[in-house]
Design a protein that fits this description.
The protein has 64 residues and is an alpha+beta fold. The chain contains 3 helices and 3 strands. The N and C termini lie far apart (32 Å).
Length: 64
Amino acid sequence: MQNYLTLTKLREKLGGRSRSAIYTDLAEGRLPKPIKLGGKLYWPSEDVEKHLHDLMQAAQKGVV
């Protein structure tokens, strides 16, 4: 079963990143796209985990 993160939970997962910074990251393609359910945005937790893992690997390789 897929779990979803709300904006509040995503902010917590990203170390307290601001709402505006998250929307900037979305616009720049630095975060996976959310899905909209009932007027709210939700991020599939697996997508966020994979994205963060990929960023960590890229940083370790010096790509970022």
